[in-house]
Write a structure and sequence with these properties.
It is built from seven helices and nine strands; from the N terminus they run E-H-E-E-E-H-E-E-E-H-E-H-H-H-E-H. It is of the alpha/beta class. The protein has a single domain, classed as P-loop containing nucleotide triphosphate hydrolases (Rossmann fold), CATH 3.40.50.300.
Amino acid sequence: MGKIYYIMGKSSSGKDTIFKELLNRVPGLRRVVPYTTRPRREGEENGVEYFFTDEEQTEKLEKAGRIIELRAYDTACGVWKYFTADDGQVDLGAADYLMIGTLEAYEKMIRYYGADNILPLYVEVEDGERLARALARERRQAQPKYRELCRRFLADEEDFSEEKLRGLGIHRRFCNEDIEHCLEEITEVIYNGKL
């Protein structure tokens, strides 16, 4: 029986980099691609980081009962939705999977797939370093959205509070100050199938 390895962490903690590198390092690990209605960032490809969709498609999936979890954020740029759909990507009888998501989404995934089938991989970075990374990334965009960066940074404090982490049984953290060490620790967890 396969497992879903679920990467979580505050914005700019390195989740996307870790996700891509784990897919390269762990043969047979399959990605689960979530959906979003937000605009594509420079360098993003449809079907890689996200399936970029619109409100109409989202409503169709919702009416069909195929949305496992959905989050809507009232951003400085309008409402952006992120969600996971039961679209045939996951077959726990066939493989192990890797996902990126929020704590809220993780909780809903546990309800859907069962706690025994999902292992949380919570990635941490010191706040000053996270802010520096976020600012550097935003500056590379053709149209930087600094207000949204600030909103996200502040929202993360509440979204990933210690109380919420403990409430979902997330105790182990993977420090991403040194990416190579962080990747080694996570890879070991995946090969052992347990935290």
